[in-house]
Amino acid sequence: MSLPPDDPPLLDAAALRAAVAVPTDCVHCADLRHAGWESVPGPVGPPRLERVGTLRDPAIDEPTFEEHHPQGTRFWDAQAPVATRCFPYNRCEVWRCPHCGCGFLQYLEAGGYYTDHRLRSIDPALIV
After folding, report:
1. Cis peptide leading into 8, omega within 30 of 0?
2. What is the DSSP letter of 75?
């Protein structure tokens, strides 16, 4: 079931884990699955993905740019933890494949003269 684009629920780590499935061999979303962040030509939405929520708290005007990497990972690393209240996750929308439930994070990097749509599949084991 897709949600209206203007009313996504705010998800915490537990709700995010519950909302998505472990990635499978689903042919409908296989080309979208990337363990780390990947630039994509534009936002990916219906019918390929359904919106399930947001990690961006609407009560916070400017979410933190602080990152969470206790194991020494970096922003782009495939094994970087998904820390829902830290950058860049605190600026993401949460989507999933309507066929298999695989979850995806979408983030729009915007600065200066460019925008960069980024997509990362969610490994529930990395959610902290």
Report:
1. no
2. T
